[in-house]
Predict the structure.
Amino acid sequence: MKGFVSNISAPLLVGALILSVLVGLALFAPWLAPHDPSEIRLEAKLAGPSRAHLFGMDALGRDVLSRIIYGARVSVLVGFTTVGICFVFGTLMGFLAGYYGGALDEVIMRGVDILLAFPGILLAITLTSILGPSLRNVIFALCVMGWVGYARIVRAQVLALRESEFVLAARALGVRDTRLLLRHIFPNMLAPLIVEGTFGIAGAILAEAGLSFLGLGTQPPAPSWGSMLNEGRQFLFVSPHMTLAPGMAIMTVVLGLNFLGDALRDRFDVKREGPW
């Protein structure tokens, strides 16, 4: 046990701690938030940090700390939902391309190449502009681009594993393709997929913040770190706390997830592929 703990790197611990705090804030926001995030008190607008309001008040007199805590819910929802959908769809496409090959492989991988030709955030901006600003459309736009990294990883792993002795032995025993992929091949590719997912959560959170900053994501009065940045930029020199608080939240979470992803990548010794 002592040896196992000593092998855990500081970035891994820091990243895991930040991720745990983020999820905890999202799950227990109603109990952790000191005030109602939508309560308007115009007499206290733009008030600076105080003992009652640690992060100050915004332009409508709403408690910034409470909005930061509730904004974690949006980040967790977008990050984990986007990665979950991309993980499933990308893994399926990678399995089909790598295991069956031929024309199916060609069609899927050319589709991947076409998507990779577009900058991810610009494609997301275009899609959300066309579909309309909403959290659901943000998740859809991020998923359109986000699955390609998982597909490439899975395809490469399947191509490397499908001629392995244990796979050939399973085939000789009459194991069906679905069982072969899920029970024999899939467990051997989880490490790079976990690393890709960790970076994917960070990328999705950052992308959602950017889209919300542009008014294409979460709509008022729901709190989002990106929209809070947008609301605070016009008061940057009058009430800098309105910008610093959500900016620090985004930076801390994305940095922590990148620490976690880098530590897992080093531990598993894998290469990462993806659009983010």
User: Anything to note?
Assistant: The chain has one domain: 56-268.
